[in-house]
Specification:
This protein has 117 residues and is of the alpha+beta class. It is built from two helices and five strands. The chain has a five-stranded mixed beta sheet with strand order 1-2-3-5-4, with helices on one face. The protein is globular. The model has no long low-confidence stretch (mean pLDDT 93).
Length: 117
């Protein structure tokens, strides 16, 4: 009925400590707490693996997704205009950012396996 995952934010080495995250649920399972439960499992694992920042792209408007992400500490950082095409139209995509840990100088690269649920 749904899943959450993280993927590399960009391929360049400088971005190896950042991930893009998403949670998807079947429409008839929205507003039941499942997205929250999936993210509650994902973010601690990303932190444990050594990642520092999670990003989320949200097709706008989408008040429910914005609310979910902001409840986890995501803050808006910008909007890509007409960046996504689905359901027969162009959509703006808002970007949110969440720190996963204090920004210290990394002593080692994060784990290579990024979890999904």
């Amino acid at each position: 009925v749904g899943y959450a995952y993280a993927a590399p934010h960009h391929e360049r080495a400088a971005y190896q400590w950042s991930v893009d995250t998403s949670v998807y649920l079947r429409r008839d399972w929205h507003r039941r707490g499942l997205g929250r439960a999936l993210y509650a499992q994902l973010f601690p694992l990303l932190t444990e693996q050594g990642y520092y920042t999670a990003y989320a792209g949200i097709s706008l408007p989408n008040a429910a997704s914005v609310g979910l992400h902001e409840s986890f500490g995501f803050e808006p950082v910008g909007v890509y205009r007409k960046a996504g095409f689905k359901s027969g139209r162009w959509w703006d995509v808002g970007w949110w950012q969440k720190p996963l840990r204090p920004y210290l100088v990394p002593t080692e690269a994060p784990a290579q396996r990024i979890p999904s649920y």
